[in-house]
Amino acid sequence: MTRLKSGAVGAVVVLAAVAGCTSGQDKGAAGSEPKSGGGAVLTAAEALPVKGRAPKTGYSRERFGSAWADTDANSCDTRDDILKRDLKDVRFTGGRCKVSYGLLDPDPYSGKEITYRRGASKVDIDHVVALSDAWQKGAKYWDASKRIALANDPLNLIAVDASANRGKGDGDAATWLPPDKDYRCPYVATQVAVKKKYGLWVTSGEKEAMEKVLAACPDQKLPSGGNPTEAPARFTAR
């Protein structure tokens, strides 16, 4: 479900505790270079459309395609792509795709150092904008190609502590923010970037929470990059 290394390729809890952002972490989950600063992310947040949350009826993970589809055709699945991007001291098994070991140092959500071992991992790949949240805020009405693209877009993906990620669930910024206060601004900035890129809306409470976080870090950059918003035609979803 989802802090980055410098120079990485490609492209988060409780509202009552919102505070303390730093501008140093200015890349989104995709590790891409920022477009601009000086309030750009707050301006983008303010421009997001506001609507009520649609019913969750009909949602399933399968509506976003098979998990970790290789939509960028690099012969590695999306999960391994993100592990390679976000972990340090990476080791592989059976080639250069399957990550067998690495260090998440630090985990952006908790600030802790976590060791990744394939098959016994304490690391999850989080969708910064949860797929269920996206479903209730516009993705329900998309075609499958766009949903598959969102689910595999590096801009919306990040390696994190599994326990923190599972505590997040499908929460938005109004209900969950990273325990590490230093990562709240980059986290919210990435959510804004993803929702802007894909045309997703926010609830009034979510927008208020985003603006509250971002007001404390006016120099926070707006992440960009990631994959196209349509997956190749060979990928399908229910």
Q: What would you say this structure looks like, in words?
A:
This protein has one domain. Helices cover 26% and strands 11% of the residues. It contains 7 helices and 5 strands. The strands form 2 sheets. The chain has a 3-stranded antiparallel β-sheet, with helices on one face. It has a two-stranded antiparallel sheet with strand order 4-5.
Task: Explain the layout of strands and helices.
Elements: H1 40-47, H2 78-86, E1 88-92, E2 99-104, E3 114-117, E4 123-127, H3 131-135, H4 144-151, E5 157-161, H5 162-168, H6 184-198, H7 204-214
Antiparallel strand pairs: 1-2, 2-3, 4-5
Helical content, roughly? Answer: 25-40%
Number of domains: 1
- Percentage beta strand: 5-15%
**Going across the major beta sheet, what is the strand order?**
1-2-3
List the total number of helices: 7
Q: Provide the residue-averaged pLDDT.
A: 87
SSE pattern? HHEEEEHHEHHH
Sheet with most strands: 3 strands, antiparallel
Indicate the low-confidence ranges by residue numbers. Answer: 1-28, 30-38
Report, as a whole number of angstroms, the end-to-end distance.
19 Å
Structural class: alpha+beta
Globally, the shape reads globular
Task: Count all strands and give the number.
Answer: 5
Radius of gyration: 16 Å
